[in-house]
Design brief:
six-stranded mixed sheet; D-Amino Acid Oxidase, Chain A, domain 2; FAD/NAD(P)-binding domain; eight-stranded mixed sheet
Length: 437
């Protein structure tokens, strides 16, 4: 069958573009066979590939990526490697205490796997355990922080609450009135991380980039075709985010969104001094529809802004980028009016997939075809642990975490006019977020 939906990213992902240009891609040519074939080199694909290769060192594992590694959603993320749920719908966060604790444990297992790999291979990606701030700029946001704190208390998680003066000291702006610091998350340069993960695979892994899969023949074995070659294996893993739909699965079960980021040019020393505050931090808005920002000092002195979730068919990351950049400009100028002349050097969008009931895709999609999608905004942690557990499942391993992942619900079917509903909901949430955006 022809693949009906493939990504087409532009080359304006700031995280990728500020790194040295990658070596020329090894493109899939000719017809190869292997034991395990993984499509997609985001967090899920990199993790499932590494784990398959670790568990079966005598097997050949091939990873095929349509774009350059780092130019995908994984390399376009804001680099918050988060242990908690991303948003603060705090009332549900600890309603089911055991489920909340299990969710945090699952995410931390993903972060541990990344931490071990990054440390073992000395991957240079500014991976630091700085924690994350959830910051409020409105009284509604402050209320959400209080609810979040109650939820964290309920599951014995530590945090520190900061008031306005401390916010100004850390962030170099008076914009925020209250912030909750949770210490166990990491910050990372996401494109550097995925490039580093790909560059340090076990020896039995081969990676092909710029090799978009255009068609697939399911069978025993399965074969995928790219423009210049093909790959055949008895076991196929689709780590292709929402584009898994293009492979004939999950029709009307995924909600395709784009979210958008912008990165400033490097700040001058004078601008940094004027800004004040700590040299590195990451803020997630108290309201889920608000703006995330990061100050990134090493190796460049820049500020990242991310906001807006827009519904999309996932193939258009460019036509609305200037519209998103305007929203980033406004958010930046509101927070740091004294730096309003500092331009963004890059603005970009990237794909996210949600499901209506928030449940993930994990497991066998058809005989010997496996997949994992829907990481609910915490793709670094959840994509990584899902990929690792999927490899363990394929290899017949057993663990408490794997059983928990298998026991999760699965996405339900979208409603009629789901796209319209999502658009209206996104617009309403932006209005309610107000100054949190
Ligand atoms: C702007 C932005 C900010 C974000 N911030 C954060 C954050 O701070 N923290 C966090 O945890 N998450 C964040 N996310 C979410 C996170 O990036 C995603 O959840 C994550 O990338 C999903 O990982 P994945 O491996 O499932 O998919 P992806 O990273 O999208 O990887 C899928 C891969 O499959 C490839 N592919 C698809 N179809 C084909 C095909 N036919 N042939 C070959 N290859 C194919 C794609 O090119 C892609 O490389 C953010 C996302 C965006 C867009």
């Amino acid at each position: 069958m022809e693949i009906s939906l493939t990504p087409s990213y532009d080359n304006n992902n700031g995280w990728q573009e500020i790194l040295p240009a990658p070596a020329e891609a090894t493109v899939l040519t000719g017809d190869l066979t292997c034991d395990y074939l993984v499509i997609g080199a985001g967090y899920s694909g990199l993790s499932v590939t590494r784990r398959l290769a670790e568990l079966d060192p005598s097997a050949s594992v091939v990873l095929v990526e349509g774009d350059r590694i780092g130019n995908n959603a994984a390399g376009r993320s804001s680099g918050f490697a988060i242990d908690h749920a991303h948003n603060l719908r705090a009332k549900s966060f600890a309603d089911a205490k055991a489920a909340a604790i299990a969710g945090v444990t699952m995410n931390r297992a993903g972060l541990d796997y990344l931490d071990q790999t990054i440390t073992a291979h000395n991957i240079d990606c500014q991976w630091v355990k700085e924690g994350k701030y959830h910051a409020a700029a409105t009284s509604r946001g402050e209320g959400m922080l209080d609810s979040f704190a109650e939820s964290l208390d309920a599951i014995d998680e530590d945090y520190t609450m900061h008031h306005a003066a401390k916010c100004e000291e850390v962030f170099g702006t008076r914009y925020y009135t209250k912030a909750l610091h949770a210490p166990h998350s990491y910050l990372v340069q996401p494109a550097a991380m995925v490039r580093g993960l790909a560059g340090t695979m076990p020896e039995n892994v081969s990676i092909y980039e710029s090799s978009m899969v255009k068609s697939v023949e399911y069978g025993t074995p399965h074969t995928v075709h790219t423009q210049r070659g093909s790959a055949t294996a008895p076991v196929l893993v689709l780590a292709t985010n929402g584009f898994t739909e293009g492979f004939g699965f999950l029709q009307k079960q995924l909600i395709p969104l784009i979210t958008w980021g912008s990165l400033t040019r490097e700040l001058t020393d004078a601008e940094s001094e004027q800004l004040g505050g700590h040299p590195s931090y990451g803020i997630i808005a108290a309201h889920p529809a608000g703006t995330s920002v990061r100050r990134v000092t090493t190796p460049n002195n820049r500020i990242l802004v991310r906001n807006i979730f827009s519904f999309s068919k996932r193939s258009d990351f460019t036509s609305r980028v200037s519209w998103a950049a305007k929203s980033h400009r406004k958010a930046f100028d509101n927070r740091w009016p004294e730096l309003s002349g500092v331009p963004f050097s890059h603005s970009w969008g990237g794909a996210l997939s949600l499901s209506r009931n928030g449940e993930p895709v994990f497991g066998e999609l058809r005989p010997n075809v496996y997949g994992t999608v829907v990481h609910n905004g915490v793709g670094i942690a959840r994509g990584t642990i899902s990929g690792k557990l999927l490899a363990e499942m394929i290899m017949g391993e057993d663990s408490e975490l794997l059983r928990q992942m298998q026991a999760k619900g699965r996405p339900n079917t979208n409603l009629p006019f789901q796209d319209l509903g999502v658009r209206i909901n996104a617009r309403a949430r932006r209005l309610i977020a107000g100054r949190e955006e």
